[in-house]
Amino acid sequence: PVGLSPPPHPHQTRSPIDQAHSVDKDRSGVISDTELQQALSNGTWTPFNPVTVRSIISMFDRENKGGVNFNEFAGVWKYITDWQNIFRTYDRDNSGFIDKNELKQALTGFGYRLSDQFYNTLIEKFDRQRKGQVAFDDFIQCCIVLQRLTDVFRRYDTDQDGWIQVSYEQYLSMVFNVV
C-alpha cells in the first residue's frame, strides 16, 4: 500500500495529530524529513524518494525549520492522502505503479497537453526503479516538478500562447528555481 502507515486496527482511523505523534520519533515536536520518509510507504519496499519528502516538507514548513510542527503536519497528511487518492484513480490496473498511458491520462486530466515523446521523457526521469513505470512517491515528485516548471513558464508567457523568449541566464534561473 502507498501513503502513510496504516492505523493499528483496520476499523480505527487516526487523526493527523495522533499520526504526527507516532511519526515524531525523537519527540522534538518537529517532524524532520527523515522521520516523514520513514513513515511513508511508496508500495515498493524501498525508501520513499527523499527529494519528494523534502519538496513536501518545504511546502508546509512555514518557519523554515527543516521540518513541520504538528499543525503543519495535518496539511502534509491531507496532501499525501489526496495524492494517494489521485494515484489510485489513475493506477487503473492496481499495479501500484503508473505506466506511461496512466501518466498520460492523469496529466491530461490535470490539463496538460504533452507529446508522447515527452511522456517517455517523464517516465525516464521519474522511474527510479527502471521498470518503465512510476511509483507513488515519484509520481508526486513528477507532478510537483511539472507544476513548478509550468508556474515559472507562465510568468514569462505573458500572452499565454505557449511560447516564451528568454535569455540563457533567465532560462538557468527558471530551472534552478525549480530543481
From TrEMBL:
<feature type="region of interest" description="Disordered">
    <location>
        <begin position="1"/>
        <end position="28"/>
    </location>
</feature>
<keyword id="KW-0053">Apoptosis</keyword>
<protein>
    <recommendedName>
        <fullName>Programmed cell death protein 6</fullName>
    </recommendedName>
</protein>
<dbReference type="Pfam" id="PF13202">
    <property type="entry name" value="EF-hand_5"/>
</dbReference>
<dbReference type="GO" id="GO:0051592">
    <property type="term" value="P:response to calcium ion"/>
</dbReference>
<comment type="subunit">
    <text>Homodimer and heterodimer; heterodimerizes (via the EF-hand 5) with PEF1. Isoform 1 and isoform 2 self-associate; probably forming homodimers. Interacts with CPNE4 (via VWFA domain). Interacts with PDCD6IP; the interaction is calcium-dependent. Interacts with RBM22. Interacts with PLSCR4. Interacts with ANXA7 and TSG101. Interacts with DAPK1. Interacts with SEC31A; the interaction is calcium-dependent and promotes monoubiquitination of SEC31A. Interacts with ANXA11 (via N-terminus); the interaction is calcium-dependent.</text>
</comment>
<dbReference type="GO" id="GO:0001525">
    <property type="term" value="P:angiogenesis"/>
</dbReference>
<dbReference type="GO" id="GO:0048306">
    <property type="term" value="F:calcium-dependent protein binding"/>
</dbReference>
<keyword id="KW-0967">Endosome</keyword>
<keyword id="KW-0037">Angiogenesis</keyword>
<keyword id="KW-0460">Magnesium</keyword>
<feature type="compositionally biased region" description="Pro residues">
    <location>
        <begin position="1"/>
        <end position="10"/>
    </location>
</feature>
<dbReference type="GO" id="GO:0006915">
    <property type="term" value="P:apoptotic process"/>
</dbReference>
<feature type="domain" description="EF-hand">
    <location>
        <begin position="78"/>
        <end position="113"/>
    </location>
</feature>
<feature type="domain" description="EF-hand">
    <location>
        <begin position="144"/>
        <end position="179"/>
    </location>
</feature>
<keyword id="KW-0968">Cytoplasmic vesicle</keyword>
<keyword id="KW-0472">Membrane</keyword>
<dbReference type="GO" id="GO:0005789">
    <property type="term" value="C:endoplasmic reticulum membrane"/>
</dbReference>
<dbReference type="GO" id="GO:0012507">
    <property type="term" value="C:ER to Golgi transport vesicle membrane"/>
</dbReference>
<keyword id="KW-0256">Endoplasmic reticulum</keyword>
<keyword id="KW-0677">Repeat</keyword>
<dbReference type="GO" id="GO:0005768">
    <property type="term" value="C:endosome"/>
</dbReference>
<dbReference type="GO" id="GO:0005509">
    <property type="term" value="F:calcium ion binding"/>
</dbReference>
<keyword id="KW-0007">Acetylation</keyword>
<dbReference type="InterPro" id="IPR002048">
    <property type="entry name" value="EF_hand_dom"/>
</dbReference>
<keyword id="KW-0479">Metal-binding</keyword>
<dbReference type="GO" id="GO:0005634">
    <property type="term" value="C:nucleus"/>
</dbReference>
<keyword id="KW-0539">Nucleus</keyword>
<keyword id="KW-0106">Calcium</keyword>
<dbReference type="InterPro" id="IPR051426">
    <property type="entry name" value="Peflin/Sorcin_CaBP"/>
</dbReference>
<dbReference type="Pfam" id="PF13499">
    <property type="entry name" value="EF-hand_7"/>
</dbReference>
<dbReference type="InterPro" id="IPR011992">
    <property type="entry name" value="EF-hand-dom_pair"/>
</dbReference>
<comment type="function">
    <text>Has a lower Ca(2+) affinity than isoform 1.</text>
</comment>
<dbReference type="InterPro" id="IPR018247">
    <property type="entry name" value="EF_Hand_1_Ca_BS"/>
</dbReference>
<keyword id="KW-0963">Cytoplasm</keyword>
<dbReference type="GO" id="GO:0042803">
    <property type="term" value="F:protein homodimerization activity"/>
</dbReference>
